[in-house]
Amino acid sequence: MALNEISIPLNGIKLGGSLAIPPEAAGLVIFAHGSGSSRHSPRNQYVARVLREAGSGTLLFDLLTAEEEQAEAHTRQLRFNIPFLAERLVGVTRWALEHTGAREVATGYFGSSTGAAAALVAAAELGEVVDAVVSRGGRPDLAGDALEEVKAPTLLIVGAEDQDVIRLNEEAYSRLRCERALRIIPGASHLFEEPGTLEDVAAIAAEWFARHLSQRVSS
Fold first, then answer.
1. pLDDT band for position 81 (50/70/90)?
2. pLDDT digits (tens, 9 = 90+) for 43-67
3. How far, in Å, CA of 103 to CA of 72, rounded?
4. Is there a contact between 138 and 161 (Cβ–Cβ < 8 Å)?
5. What is the dihedral angle through the alpha carbons of 17, 22, 23, 24, rounded to the nearest 10 degrees?
6. Are 169 and 158 contacting, i.e. CB atoms less than 8 angstroms apart?
7. Which of 46, 185, 209, 216 is 20 to 30 Å from 199 by CA-CA measure?
8. How far apart are CA 90 and CA 118, in angstroms?
């Protein structure tokens, strides 16, 4: 399926995005990439391709403008500014539901690294608009008090060799009050670079989204 390169207007700026919604899609999964990454992340692009093959639409977009990315390379201030990133994600979500024909389908978030925290904060703010969240090697702990407010079923995926991040995910998991699951991928490090580990992530995420995004369609 061809990706449509789009420009998302948001509060006086424009964010680049890649959108694909298969016919009869059960939902639209919006990606929130991690610190220092972009919509061109090969890992997220691979996961997005698997999700589309499983019947979900995908939207990958840049959380920062080109100018912000250039400044961020020196200051590294925005990548851990979770309220700022979450505000961007909320704005893009509302734009997507209004302008992509996805208003009637379910919405999911796939977040990685600090993008996972932004996804959880955005999910807490948007409430029933968001139907499922998946975190890959994320920092959900950075969502803080928003964790208790998340209503969307949330899946946390961590590599077994990523011990510090496992601990942080376990702490966040204990604070979630929604339907939740924590999956640890054997042999995987933080970036899931080991053979077969990213494939495991994509398969688990696809199953989670297929189960929870289809519930809105069938209800």
1. confident
2. 899 999 999 999 999 999 988 887 7
3. 33
4. no
5. -100
6. yes
7. 216
8. 9
Half-sphere exposure of 171 (CA within 13 A, CB side): 14
Token pair, residue 161, equals: 């060799």
In this predicted structure, the answer to whether residue 219 has a pLDDT above a threshold of 50 is: no
Residue 41 corresponds to which tokens in the numbers above?
């992340």
Residues recorded for the chain:
219
Residue type, position 210, single letter? A
In order of their start, the domains of the chain are 4-218 (3.40.50.1820)
Neighbours of 12 (CB within 10 A): 5
Instruction: For residue range 157-173, list pLDDT tens digits in order.
Output: 999 999 999 999 999 99
Which strands form 132-136's sheet, in the order they lie side by side?
A: 4-10, 13-20, 57-61, 27-32, 106-112, 132-136, 154-159, 180-185
**Amino acid (1-letter code) at residue 198:** L
- What confidence score (pLDDT) does residue 1 get? 59
Return d(Cα 183, Cα 160) in angstroms, integer.
9
Contact assessment for residue 78 and residue 85, using Cβ atoms and an 8 Å cutoff: yes
Identify whether the C-beta of residue 185 lies closer than 8 Å to the C-beta of residue 158.
yes
